[in-house]
Design goal:
Layout lengths: L13 E8 L9 E3 L16 H12 L22 H6 L1 E6 L6 E5 L6 E9 L5 E11 L2 E9 L5 H4 L8 H11 L7 E4 L2 H11 L6 H10 L7 H8 L6 H60 L18 H16 L1
Antiparallel strand pairs: 1-2, 1-5, 3-4, 5-6, 6-7, 7-8
């Protein structure tokens, strides 16, 4: 497979469309981009909303705020200028206060608004995953509802009716889950659970994939490739624990080797002792037989072969000494 292949059959889940409502300067109307699984080039003049669209997709795929940085392509000095709250309220500049030296941030919406982000992905097997997030204010606090569906959703059709009590969630649950054997839409308690489901359903190896996506979105200059790969593409491994386990296994293997060597030495000593015993018996039998035969021949008597009972005969003193030495080696090994 080509590393840079862009065909849907070889590239896993690919973005089909993304919709945004009340996000940044995209106000009161549902805006939609439709790559339909293809590579797309996003162009436009300065302040036309390119970074706003990219940050919307980044928000859907990287829900943890500590792993996400908005407006990365605008430079380090502007990375902290945009937040979820500023996008929901539609901040678009500052205005000089008349008669004072202070400035007022201009915004398109107040805290009674809601914001919806939605993106649908499809793979070669025609499986669909739709990510969506709904934001609204409860007093002064910005609330976020995280959800995921196994079918295509539309902001206009599925999120038109909204209330802070949560009746819209119950309506979606009844509409898509009541008659389905498998849940088609799920809501999550927070960004951690939502991120874990993204990793699971998109078949990613770990949460580091989301952090890597955040880094890749705004990368312009890569100073140290090794450092970038080590920090963002490799999972942290417990090296010290693995070393301790390896050391313990090595010690166990050395102990087994010592025991095996002792057993091998004992086996050699036993074999030597058995060869000595068998050799001494054969030598005694042979000497007795040859002596008797010679005497009968000298006397002119017929020779008769006979088997001597050597188990009652003692071997020579030298052989006994060799046998005792072999047994001592075996006993002390």
């Amino acid at each position: 497979m080509n590393l840079f292949s862009t065909t849907p059959e070889e590239s896993g889940y690919r973005l089909q469309y993304m919709e945004i409502f009340n996000w940044g300067t995209f106000d009161k109307v549902v805006y939609r981009i439709s790559p339909e699984g293809n590579n797309s080039l996003l162009t436009g003049a300065n302040a036309s909303g390119k970074s706003t669209l990219v940050d919307a997709l980044l928000t859907l795929l990287v829900p943890m705020k500590r792993h996400r940085f908005y407006n990365q392509s605008s430079g380090v000095e502007k990375k902290g200028a945009r937040t979820e709250e500023s996008y929901v309220l539609g901040y678009h500049g500052t205005q000089q206060e008349e008669g004072t030296s202070g400035t007022t941030t201009m915004k398109l919406r107040d805290r009674s608004c809601r914001s919806v982000l939605l993106a649908a992905f499809r793979n070669a097997e025609e499986k669909v995953i739709t990510l969506f997030q709904v934001r609204y204010f409860s007093g002064q606090e910005l609330k976020t509802v995280y959800g995921m569906a196994r079918k295509e959703l539309r902001i206009k059709d599925d999120f038109a009716e909204f209330d802070t009590r949560g009746d819209w969630r119950k309506r979606l649950d009844r509409q898509y889950n009541a008659k389905a054997g498998k849940r088609m839409i799920d809501f999550f308690n927070g960004p951690s659970e939502y991120a874990a489901q993204i990793v699971d359903r998109f078949h990613m190896r770990s949460l580091n994939a989301l952090t890597l996506f955040n880094q890749i979105v705004g990368v312009k200059v890569l100073d140290d490739l090794d450092l970038f790969i080590r920090h963002h593409m490799l999972d942290e491994q417990p090296a010290e624990e693995k070393y301790d386990a390896l050391y313990r296994n090595f010690q166990n293997l050395m102990g087994r080797r010592t025991i095996s060597t002792r057993c091998r030495n004992k086996s050699r000593c036993l074999n030597l002792s058995m060869r000595w015993r068998n050799g001494s018996r054969r030598s005694v039998r042979k000497s007795r037989t040859s002596n008797g035969t010679a005497k009968r021949r000298r006397r002119g008597l017929p020779t008769v072969s006979c088997a001597w009972r050597t188990n009652s005969r003692r071997p020579t003193r030298a052989n006994c000494a060799n046998g005792r030495n072999a047994l001592r080696v075996w006993e002390h090994s």
